[in-house]
Amino acid sequence: MQSSTRPEALPALILPRRELLALAALGSLAQLTRAGASPVPEEPQVLDFARFLELAVPRARELVGDTSGSGQDRYLHALAALASGLREVPQPQMRETTSKGASARTFLGVNECEAPFTVLHWRLDPGARIGLHPHLYGNVLTLCLEGEVRIQNFELVGERDFDTKESFRVRRSNDQQLLPGRMNLVNLEHGYVHGFCAGPAGARGLDLTTRLREKRSTPTLEVGAQALDEARGIFEGRWRQD
Question: According to CATH, what is the number of the domain 47-240?
């Protein structure tokens, strides 16, 4: 004889909140799987340069008009999402841009394209340096294609004055080692000073530079060797007009 059990006779099941949330997530996962959707993000699509431009140029044109700090962030991150899959980029004709007195050479070329941005193609010999310099009129997405390069970003503390001959305070906002496929972003409102130092095998990469303001001369930033405030990354800085 089959016995019947009324629902009210069953003991109450009480679970902690975190377990209820986990069960809900598993239910959502099951629904996605049944619907044929993958719950795991796919790896970035590998793009050649032509396909990258095909996807990036319309998106750049859509977003480039908002030149506020947050607008530039949206623009740069949208380009970065596509550039993360960019691997093979033809190397254009390069000209030497080595600074006077430097022992390791630097080279620069341009991958021509019809876009809101300019594609600067750089190559650095082992140990080559590009000094710290502010971006005053164009923001930048830097992508490493080969080798290894260290990039540091700084920004002025307080009012910005790019012509003063007095010393001032700067904040180091980033200290990053770029390997192939990794990127560094320069927004004209924050982290707008950057400099490069190539690793022992040298480096090659791209700067996607978008001009937003009138072009003007760019000084070099000299930063004190010792931090004024190590915890906050504050240093003394001074401009050198080259």
Answer: 2.60.120.10
